[in-house]
Amino acid sequence: MSEEEKKQNNSNNSDEIDLRQLFSSIGDFFKSIFVGFIMLIVAFKNATIKYFKIIFLFVVLGGLIGIALKYVLPDYYTSSMLLRSSYSTVKLTESSIEKLDQLCQEGNYEGLATKLNIDTAVAKNIKGFSYEPFVSEAEIVELEILKEQLKSEIENEEVIERFVEKLKNENKSTYRIFVQVYDSKNLGSLEEPLIDYFRNSQYISKRLQIEKENLILKERNIDEELQKLDSLRELVIKNYDNLAERNRTGSNNIIMKDEQLIDPLSIINKRDQLYQEKLRIQQQLYLTPSFELIDGFTVFSKPDSPGLLKIGFYSCLYGLLIAYVIIMLIYFNKYLNSVEELEKKKSELG
Description:
Number of helices: 11
Order of helices and strands: HHEHHHEHHEHHHEH
Largest sheet: 4 strands, antiparallel
Radius of gyration: 40 Å
Oligomer: single chain
């Protein structure tokens, strides 16, 4: 065998050994993870058996505290209203709602009453506020179509999802406003104050006022145009009557040869268009579609606060979590003591 063949065989054997070591290392790594996971379960089981009394005590204690809280804390009811505000943005709505909710959390009911222009007694009945942008079914369909179209252009689906989600939340005009109250009987009295709170904000009120003034000016302009068209129509009709008198030769036929005559139908059509535009303006002035209540609060008889079973279950879970945290602290303290003992022995031997 030549020297080159020997070198090649040695190289191949070395590569095979390297690959075997690599796969062996990978296998040992996953094996150690599996063994570690099993040992963790065993340690968890042993700790549960050893400190069962502590776990049982905290679970029962947590359940009792939860049941006590259910009877101490009052029930609350949640309802919502749909509000359209073309001049509002997600950030603006979020800021407005956060101010109201913060006043509730602070217990500053006088400040809340001043903000909403309501009685302090009504303000004390409110637990909190929240909101979410409202997306209609038509908008959802449009966004899904847009998503499918973007997939042909962009391969990264995560980028598409972020873009669609951002598009869904930005430039929204309809919002669902949530309110939580302790007594739902006076829920209807909050509707108008909340609407006025958003409508009378400096940012929105100025734009609504400008929009209203523009619509009124536009309506006046249309009225003037309608008056001119009515006068022109009367003149055209008189002109046709005079022409008919001149051209009457024993019959009622009218011979129209004058190119300067205006067709009365065009005037009537133009007048009808302007009148329809006036009706649309009057509708906008009355309905104010740029700011309107779509759906008001609904009074529910069933409270939104968690029931006795639910709050008891979650309280037991919290008690269980606290118990295991305490057990972990006990084991950690034992570990620190063992380290301290080991250091003492080393110092004595040294």
